[in-house]
Design goal:
Layout: E1 9-15, H1 19-30, E2 34-41, H2 48-61, E3 68-71, H3 85-88, H4 140-156, E4 160-164, H5 169-177, E5 185-190, H6 205-209, H7 211-218, E6 223-227, H8 229-232, H9 239-246, H10 255-271
Parallel strand pairs: 1-2, 1-4, 2-3, 4-5, 5-6
Helix pairs in contact: 4-5, 5-7, 9-10
Length: 278
């Protein structure tokens, strides 16, 4: 297959890793068609402190240590924060034996901010409950996000794709605090459902976490591509892919391959995609 002559598309990834978003980080970081400018985190699958740490661990384990991580909002625009521990575990990125899937990033590795925070609430198939009210919104992370995106758009003389795979809180604040950035970005977000949802008959987790933020983004006038839940169901990973991830290298799988294999098995079990092996 001939290589594309087009330069890589500049991408800013806004996410809440999470097993699914861990894979998104890997795909964005290693795709020859994308240039991953940086990552911002948002409360969703777990508290913002935990998903920020997870983003750092994924980047370090995958050899993507040069990618900046910016800690974003720890609560929705108008609601209390929620989390989904029954799908992603207490850490937000648990392994099959319980506890975090990946080891901590060594001190001095220089991958983004880090702090630890309390566990959020859990989500079920029919309900999302909330812990005690969180503090006020903190725009500092969104300010850094705006600076990086504006600089990249000016340098490349092209729009930056803001890819959001979690709640749209950061993106909504970005557009509200920096309305001029609307002409420098295109937004691609995973959220919503055209039919059956994943937290209720018709509700999808990312939108349900912060529906006010979603409404703000949709009314912003920005260029937007919505990727509903149904689209993600066309790119399923089966057990044969999980097995292939281990590889056939002499001496067995590398620690990173084993971790990714374990990630797929853990996620398959919690969302009941397929029956994992032992």
């Amino acid at each position: 297959m001939p290589q594309s002559t087009h330069p890589p598309t500049p991408v800013w990834l806004d996410c809440d890793p999470g097993h699914d978003d861990a894979i998104a980080i890997l795909l964005a970081g290693y795709s020859p068609q994308l240039h991953l400018l940086g990552i911002s985190t948002v409360a969703g699958n777990q508290s913002v402190e935990k998903v920020t740490e997870n983003a750092r661990r994924v980047l370090y384990a995958a050899g993507l240590a040069g990618v900046e991580v910016v800690q974003g909002q720890g609560r929705p625009v108008m609601r209390d924060p929620v989390a989904c521990a029954e799908i992603h575990g207490d850490s937000g990125l648990d392994g099959p034996s319980g506890g975090p899937l990946l080891p901590p990033v060594p001190v001095g590795a220089g991958i983004g901010p880090h702090s630890t925070g309390p566990t959020g609430a859990r989500c079920t198939d029919t309900d999302i409950s909330a812990p005690a009210a969180a503090g006020p919104l903190q725009p500092r992370g969104v300010v850094v996000m705006a600076e990086r995106i504006a600089a990249a758009a000016a340098q490349r003389a092209q729009r930056v794709h803001v890819v959001a795979t979690g709640a749209l809180t950061n993106v909504a604040l970005l557009l509200t605090l920096f309305p001029e950035i609307v002409d420098r970005i295109e937004i691609v977000f995973m959220g919503g459902a055209l039919g059956t949802g994943n937290t209720g008959p018709s509700t999808e987790f990312n939108i349900q976490v912060d529906p006010e933020a979603a409404a703000m983004v949709m009314r912003s006038g920005a260029r937007i591509t919505m990727v509903p839940l149904e689209v993600t169901h066309t790119a399923l990973v089966g057990p044969e892919v999980a097995t292939a991830v281990l590889g056939a290298a002499p001496g067995g799988a590398t620690p990173f391959r084993q971790a990714m294999h374990d990630l797929l098995h853990f996620f398959a079990k919690t969302v009941r995609l397929w029956r994992p092996g032992p």
